[in-house]
Amino acid sequence: MKKIFLAATLVATSVSAFSQNFQPPLIRQHIEFLASDELEGRGTASLGEIRAANYIADIFQKLGLKPYGTGGSYFQPFETSIAIEGKAHELTGRNVIGFLDNGAAKTIVVGAHYDHLGRGFQGSSLSPDSKGKIHNGADDNASGTTGVLELAKYFVENDVKEKHNYLFITFSGEELGLIGSKHFTEKPTLPLTNIAAMVNMDMIGRLDDNKGIIVSGWGTSPAWGKLIPALAKSQNLKYTVDSSGTGASDHTSFYLKNIPVVQFFTGTHSDYHKISDDADKINVDGEARILNVIAGLLQNLDKEKSDPEFIATTSNPHDGTTTSNFKVTLGVMPDYSYSGKGLRIDGVSKARPADKAGILVGDIITKLGGAEIGTIYDYMDILSKHEKGQEVEAVLLRGKEVKKVKVTF
Ligand SMILES: [Zn+2]
Hints:
GO terms for molecular function: metalloexopeptidase activity. The protein contains ten helices and 15 strands. It is of the alpha+beta class. Strands 1, 2, 3, 4, 5, 6, 7, 8 and 9 form a nine-stranded mixed sheet that branches. The longest helix has 20 residues, at 138-157. Bound molecules: zinc ion. Zinc ion is lined by residues 113, 140-141, 174, 202-203, 249.
């Protein structure tokens, strides 16, 4: 019964205001090519990466975007050291960059990484015996790359001259540690002071309507809390927020340059970083709805009196003037890639409740305030039920050891 109801909701959504903007069959076409075996998992500096870069550059060119890489091309090469069979090699990866010039003073970066784990020799494959096997990376991140391509098409083909320019970037080297986006922010092809905001898409292909999307960087500007809720509602999209500007994707590189960032994510799944992250599992209708939210966000930013204000989230996570679902927080960065039971900690903010309680990076919190944590959603649910100043017990797994600590929110 619930399924039938959901299907009805989807039909209703597909005829809503933005329905004509993004075509699911086009989304599928891009993802099927980028995540095909031909591209061999798009490992940084591999032939598959170059072929994916060519595909992206061809589309940028057809759309009439200005080449904004180096030497008048769409490509921005960068050197990176990759260990192959135990020996380090200096290899060249490349970002692909196209500029939609609306003659505006400020530019918004729309980005996603297009590299993945190749044949499992680089990055962090979670498949057993992964070496030599193609990791197609359909959700991670052919889906976000497709988002960049389709948003570029949308903003080129609409009849509006926006009040911002758009710099469309697909990054490489992300899986090796955000190398492409770090390179861009160190050697930008457009002055960073001209960049008003950065919108990132990393894994937007597995929308589950029961879980909704995760929007990160929420605390880096009040603009996100002001504009995104109504847009999400218009697409019947549930969302949870993560305040932090730093996380496991390329928006981090921009946040660290004091640029407001927002990152869209449909959540982790059992195919994450495995050879089974394939195109046939992508929810293309869901991705179209997410792209509607992002297009709407970019359009609504144009209607604001000023550009998004930047807030450093490392000094005031989950509070200040931003909208947040929670009154309390632990001050941790969850590991979104962890698919086991509990909440694995990827980062701990100094002098916040988790830090004060002695919780460390790598700990897995299995119980908080008497409630079991199965997934990150349970954690968010628990947070929403607590007040500042309350003391609760956290049960955590540190290696094989079970520990109990007192946390004061
Ligand atoms: Zn990714």
